[in-house]
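Interim report, section 4.2 (structural modelling).
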Amino acid sequence: MLIAFLIMLREGIEAALIVGIIAGYLAQTGRRAWMPAVWGGVVLAALLCLGLGLGLQAIGAEFPQKQQELAEGVIALLAAGMLCTMVFWMRKAARSVRAELHGAVDQALGRHGKARGGFALAVMAFLAVGREGLESVFFLLATVQQDVGWGVPVGALLGIALSVLVGVALAKGAVRLDLRRFFRWTGVFILFVTAGLLASALKAFHEAGLWNHLQATAFDLGHVLPADTVLGTLLTGIFGYQEAPAWGEVLVYLGFLIPALWAFLAGARPTPAAQPRHA
Amino acid sequence: MTARRPAALAVLLLSAGPALAEAPEPVAVTVTDKGCEPAALTVPAGKSVFRISNKSRRVLEWEILQGTMIVEERENIIPGFVQSLSATLQPGRYEMTCGLLSNPKGTLTVTAAAAAAPGAPDPMALVGPLAAYKLYVMGEVEAFHKQTAAFVEAVKAGRIGEAKALYPVARRHYERIEPVASLFNDLDKSMDVRADDFERKEADPGFTGFHRLEKGLWADASTEGLGAYADRLLADATELKRRITDLTIPPAKMVGGAAGLIEEVAATKISGEEDRYSRTDLWDFHANVEGARKIFDLLRPLVAARDPDFVARTEKNFSRVDALLGKYRTEDGGFTPFDALSDRDRNALKGPITVLAEDLSTLRGKLGLD
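Predicted structure of the assembly:
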């Protein structure tokens, strides 16, 4: 039961995290009106996954894991790109916020075109849920089908429920922070998440059979901090922790995180520095 | 996920036989905390269904691998669960993950589907070739024992240069009879095991035999501490010589062994994993080809009558492989170190060897031994 709970918690957090960040961001920037669109994306993705899972199940077809991995990889890249853009936009906005507060935010948002920006976020929420959804649906179907008692499916459902709470808490927690702190802290946090997403994208591309380099194991913490413990699960869901990552994944993780953190933190200081434009 | 079929462990046995119809019976694999049971699987080419039971304490990701490439996988199998995975596989050697990363990987051999045998030849016809092959094996074991004794002596005397020169020479005889090595599994393991098969790799006390000595001579450039391994190797070789006289070689083993050996060369040895310290891999390949060729030559009269095209084609393939290997011969009768070959050279070797393996794998079917 515990393991089913942990697996669903991990899959759930991976989705809830992105939705939660988006929700927090919308709330903070006064665009709460877009939330129904985000919820719509979430519900639609969940229904689609459930329908697809039940459909494939009914016709006895197998779960095409390779395509699933490919899709996961592409979505992870999209999500990473979006989060990264958001973080650096925040850094820029944080500077003007000091003087002009919310007005500046609205203005900055206005420049990008409100409707399109909001729609993109709704699509992002849809993709984030869809990314983990199919895998979860098949896992759930398997738990219901095998005669291993009621504990397993219940554990799995509890896992999803808790991951939703994590997403909500993240969004709410973000709302309670003042804008400057929100930008600063969530920015750093999001960079860690983004690095995890990039590493997981590489892993997904490997599992889809597209990338086969740098696959030697960098280190094996399988005995120290297994990914199927509570802590391991949380770290995996949130930061993309792997108990035995390949070198390629480590390089992508650090190769993104270190320069990104440096750029973010250095840029947040009041000294005006050369600032790259992020699109 | 589809309708439940009764677990069919029996299908795992090497020869699934002609009973194997279109719908593949599921092949059961149990993963424990230590590894896969069984650790080696053989399935015919085409669609296979694997039923993976997770009897370990960890969440499982079961993968079929070719090198680092993931061919098929099933994720999130929780302890106590059984999940099935269907895969359409090409002939060749694959690996499968068996739980924790530190567990030894299992092997999955996919054999080319045997062509239907129209009227298998009289089993009595095999008696002659079988007897001749037994003599060949005995002769090779004799030579192997002698060369190994010389090699062991050089190691123990600390004559590194001489030992290095004798290493591939002694192994050559062993590699020729590798098709039947499974008949003396225990000795094969202790003489020819590789470090990868152990949890602690090269540091493992179970890592003995030729490759342990090879590591000492080439990687450590010292014979210090090798004495015990050398003694054990010679004792094993002596024991092999003692056993070989009474050893019965089943016909299917002899005939199937030729293909198995070449398949192994094409699928795994070509990566240069076997003689990784000495880089004498080409010696082994050559001896493997010779060993397979011997079997083919002995069976040729039986097959020629039924399928002359096959014989002609296989002859040609053997010559091609011989010619390719011949390119790397050195003047003293040895071979160029394997690391001198570029990836292109290796690929050029791999093609014809794979073709040869595929053809040879139909031999059993042609002789009605499936």
